[in-house]
Amino acid sequence: RLSCIRNNVWLACCGVVSAGLAVLSSFGLMLFCGVPFVVTVANAPFLILGVGVDDMFIMIASWEQSSRKKEKSDVKSRLAETYAEAALSVTITTLTDVLAFFIGTWTAFPSVRSFCLYTGTAFVFCYIYTMTFFGAIIVLNHKREQGNRHWLTCMPVGVDKDQAEKSCLYNACCIGNCSRQSSQPESEHPMNIFFKKYYGPFFTNKWIKLLVVLLYGAYLGGSIYGCTHIREGIDLRNLASDDSYVIPYYDDDDKYFPAYGPRVMVVITESVEYWNETVRLGIENCTQNLE
C-alpha cells in the first residue's frame, strides 16, 4: 500500500521469521534426539518457507476481511474472526503435509527417512508459530496502525493539512493517511474484486463447469495411463552436476560397454580364514559358479 501507516512490510518480514523459527526449532529438536543430518535435509528450509509464507498470507487476508465485517469491534473479536476463517485452512494443509512426510519415514533409505523426519517436524513447528507468534504480531501491527505510527520507524506520524499541495511520494512516505481516521470504509482489494465479480461468475456458468469436468476427466485418464506405464529406476547422471566427471564416465560406459549389465557384488558376512588354502578355493569356486 502507498501509505506509511497501512504498509505491512514488517508484518511480512515477521511471517518469514516465523518460518525461520520453525526450521531452527525442528532442526534443534531432531539433532538433540540424535537423528542424523544428511545433505538432503538442507533443502527443507525452502519447503518450510513456502508453506509458512502461504499461511501468513491466509492469516493476513482473513484479518483484512474481518476489518470490513467488524469495523468497530475490539481486537479480540477481530482476532477470533480471523482464526475462525484462517485456522481451518492452515490446519488442514499442515495435517496433509505432516502426514505425507511422516509416511515417508517408512522408507528403507536412511537419507530419505532423515529428510522426512526433519521436514515433517518443521511443518508442525511452523503451524504452532503461525497460530501463536504470528497472530500476536498481527495484533501488534494493528495497534501500530491505530496509533498512526510509521511502518518503518514506528514513530507517530502527523496529518498534514496541506497534503494536497505535497507530492504523491511525500504523501505516501511522510503523511499519516490511515484509513481508520477516515469516515469512508476501507476499499476492497482489487484482487478480491477480480475473483468476486469476474472469476467466480465465469466458472459458475454451466458451460464452463461442463468444460472443467471434461478437462478434469481427460487429465485423470492421462494420469492413470501414465501410472500404468511408469518405470522404476533412476538415471545416475541426474544425481551429479553438469560439469561433474560422472557424466562423461556414464556416457563412455554406455558407448563402449553396452553389452555388460549392472555390476554384481558378493559380500561374505562372516569372518573366514583367508590364509587357509581350502577356504580360498571355496571362495573361488563360489565366484566361478556365480559367473
Automatic annotation (TrEMBL):
* PROSITE patterns from the UniProt entry: SSD
What Gene3D superfamilies does UniProt report for this protein, alphabetically?
Multidrug efflux transporter AcrB transmembrane domain (1.20.1640.10)
Domain of life of the organism in this record?
Eukaryota
Domain (SSD) spans 1-140
The alphabetical list of record keywords is: Glycoprotein, Membrane, Transmembrane, Transmembrane helix
Question: Does Protein biosynthesis count among this protein's keywords?
Answer: no
Task: Output the SUPFAM superfamilies linked to this UniProt entry.
Answer: Multidrug efflux transporter AcrB transmembrane domain (SSF82866)
As for family, the record states: Belongs to the patched family.
Provide the topology term for how it sits in the membrane: Multi-pass membrane protein
InterPro entries in the cross-refs: Patched_domain-protein, PTHD_SSD, SSD
Provide the species name. Answer: Thalassarche chlororhynchos (Atlantic yellow-nosed albatross)
Instruction: From the record, give the transmembrane residue ranges.
Output: 9-38, 44-63, 83-109, 115-140, 207-226
Q: Where in the cell is it found?
A: Membrane
Q: Report the GO terms under cellular component.
A: membrane
Protein name, entry field: PTHD3 protein
The cross-references to Pfam families, in alphabetical order and at most eight, read: Patched
